[in-house]
Amino acid sequence: MQVFPFIVVAWIAGVGLYGIVTSRNLIHQIVCLIVVQSSTYVLLLGVGYVTGAVAPYYYDVPVHTPAVDPVVQALALTDVVVEAAVTALLLSVAIQAHKRFGTLDPHELAEFKG
Amino acid sequence: MDQLFALSVAVPLLVAAALVGVKPLLSGRRRTLDALAILTAASVAAMLLVIMIRTDGGDRVYWFAGFRPFHGIVIGIDFAAGPLSAGLAALAAVLVTAVMIFSWRYFRQVATYYHALMLTFLAGMTGFCLTGDIFDLFVWFELMGVSAYALTAYRPEERGPIQGALNFAITNSVGAYLSLSGIGLIYGRTGALNMAQIGAYISRHPPDRLVAVAFLLIIAGLLVKGAIVPFHFWLADAHAVAPTPLCVLFSGVMVELGLYGIARVYWSMFGSALGHRAAISHLFLALGVATAVAGALFCFRERHIKRLLAFSTISHAGMFLAGIALLTPLGLAGTAVYVAGHAMVKGALFLCAGIVLHRLGSVNETWLHGRGRHLRITGVLFTLAGLGLADLPPFGTFLGKGWIEDTGSAHGMPWLTPVFILCAILVGGAVLRVAGGVFYGLGDPPAEDRRMAQEAAEETSETDGGGQRTPLSMLIPPAVLAALAVAIGLTPLGPAVEAAAVRFQDQAAYDATVLHGAHVAHPVAPFPVEAAGVTVPDVVTGLVSAAGALLLACLALYWRRLPALRRGYEPGTGLTALAEGFQSGVINDYVTWMVLGLACIGGVLALIIG
Amino acid sequence: MRPALRRWVFLAGAAGLVAFYLWGLSGLPGFGNYPGPYGPAILRIAVAQTHATGVVSAVNFEYRGFDTVGEEFILFTAAAGTAIVLRMLRGERERPPADEARDRDVPPTSGAVRTVALMFTGPVVVAGWWLASHAQANPSGGFQGGVVLATAFILIYLAGEFLTFRRLSPTAIADAVEAAGAGGFAAIGLAAVCLGLPYLDNFLPLGQIPGAVSSSGTIALISFFVGLEVAAAFILIVSELLEQTLLIRHGGG
Description:
- Chain A is an all-alpha fold.
- Helices cover 68% and strands 0% of the residues of chain A.
- Chain B has a domain at 296-321 and 329-491 and 535-571.
- The longest helix of chain B has 32 residues, at 159-190.
- The model of chain B has no long low-confidence stretch (mean pLDDT 88).
- Helices cover 74% and strands 1% of the residues of chain B.
- Chain B is an all-alpha fold.
- Chain C is mainly α.
- Chain C has one domain (36-250).
- Chain C is 66% helix and 2% strand.
- A two-stranded antiparallel ribbon of chain C has the order 1-2.
- The two termini of chain C are 43 Å apart.
- The chains are: A mainly alpha, B mainly alpha, C mainly alpha.
- Chains B and C meet through helix 1, helix 5, helix 6, helix 7 and helix 9 of B and helix 1, helix 2, helix 4 and helix 8 of C.
């Protein structure tokens, strides 16, 4: 149980990458990219967990109760926003691809080769 | 002076926000928009140059929100910069300024967002260079990335920019997320995000498996950004379609930032902890040389001018990595000077290509043959810059390459010199072939390649021009960049750059400066310091590369008259199929190669460390 | 590469990479044994130093506030990028807006959806506002509140009222609010510089009671600006996507 969350991280990332590699649809690939990034949330939050500790919010808990690491939670928050931003941009490019060329297949969109 | 650290990032961000905020007011006033953008970029360049000069005596550290470390534990974010970091950021700012001046007349109509995105791009690059915190590095990496993706897709009406932007965004994003995983792992081990603190912690223990894994993952994103084989496939796609001013920034600075990131991560964090210097040096040397050769070979086959220049960037990126991988101060100093010189000549080349696109409506070398004869100044600039790319003295490039070769020979790798010369000849030859064919009509018109003609015909929508004269605002930036390249070659900055390199490589001194505010007067170099000046071998290898490039260009232009060469060079041969097999344009392939490449490098690291 | 070959090459590479990763996992302290020192150091001093009981917000907006500036601007850049990519191009025209696109085969919005969506709009705005202004106390903050605020506007579109959505969130205003949010955050930092303090120093009065709405100095203020920016950015992104889908068409002058 000590390393199980970290193995899950590798699985999620692997599944996402497999999706990107075998996909024929841009939207599917972009969502797989989201999956790959989700693995980083699990990693960050898993790394900062302290068994038996509370959330780092002292509104109703005495100050100095052992709490989990607040820094990774802040990092995960930043991570979420970054992912949202990149996804929005990618999806808009995919929309233009579909609109102007009628296809969402990365193989058909490949114009420059070699 | 220290506040300049914060201002150099905050000012472009604020101006970008302001430009978008008052967009309705600025919609008719193109001049104001351009002027504001140019002014901001120029002031950032000035700030960074001041920082570069003032940090000559020692790295300066700036703590945001005033949170200084106590007892060696860092709780805030810092900017820790020396001359090399600040110099690279200054280079970025100078290029952005030149590009904004060029864009003045290049784009007849442009949305406000273009200027705002250029400024956020600049802010991202500056933050990336100056930061001393590994997660902050990731944040600026992503800001740089998102701005770049958005600007690459500037003309979504064509297939090319869509392919380019998607390939660029997805590969670099996957790389960035892998880097973030590495950051998570090293944080789990050390409980720190500050590079100095992490470095100090992990160097106290013997080389560790986790450290090796974290190292590989963190540099995964940087290798992708730095266009190292086999993570380089996105670069050609993105360059072929991005607006030309943006290509200047990509080739001149963005790729080099990836390599700077690798150097920074290595020397601030992992250097002492990983140990096994010779083995690691050989690993990255192999990657660098493979990239240099592959890039040069792909470069020579290209007929699309921007893509040709993109492949030459890949080749040079390999040479830069090789210079860093030698792990000596002279190697790093040589890389720094080479980067600066290369940025200037590559920038000039791209801007000239932009002028050609503006006036003639194409970047297809085949179609353009002989049509550029009336673009006299552009032709001269392009040829000079091409010679600079082939490392002709006194362009700065010959100096950087010479130093890398010197240190290679001194450390048991004399074969580096002929390899570099070969790459320079291939790349320079390709560019000079373009110059000769397009601007002087030399040689026989190449065979018509329908696919490339179609690709190049779609370039027309980026800029509308075709006027009688090239505007001065478009001719001055490439001229100035070419002149700066010569200036870099002529300025005697050897000792200063090498001292900066020594300081960059001394992990213990960096840790002391950041964590304890110490001022280390004499940093210790990992290898003996070699003299950095203009030596005869440097000049000779530079002349040899340039001469070889000219010869190769002539051969390429007149090859039809040599039946022996004709057989190997027609498009559509087996070589093309092989090239298209690798550089297929399909994102699925690129990610596959990325994963395979990482697995191989990981295997080698496991063998070294385990 | 042919797809079958590619799959095998990828699986081989992935297997190698995962093996390498697992090989290195032995160096991690196990799950639940986070050793510090960053986390415990912050937990020890955060409440006393910033008068904020929400330590994660304190980390986000104070200790690592500079990261958050960068992240803000990443979202800002993405919204601008979406606007660039989805802009009306040459050879396209914008149709007069209607609630439903006439050339798309969409069933009319059901009465139930309409009622529920419109009913929730008000409470969602309040919830978003509350979230954005209580960063220093509980697990809320500018980002969370901003997204919820944006959702309120999107609910209006989902109720079938695209025209109302468009009227309530014109691009110019969304741009201005977004710029104010992002620029405001950067400017707060700059204000500290003007006072001779390091960038993003917390120079506002910290308040008496930790966790109260008016406590924690710049944290609450920054969170407010972040909320504005995130809300505007998401509204901008969604309205760009909707305009592209519903209004912009090929052809015509």
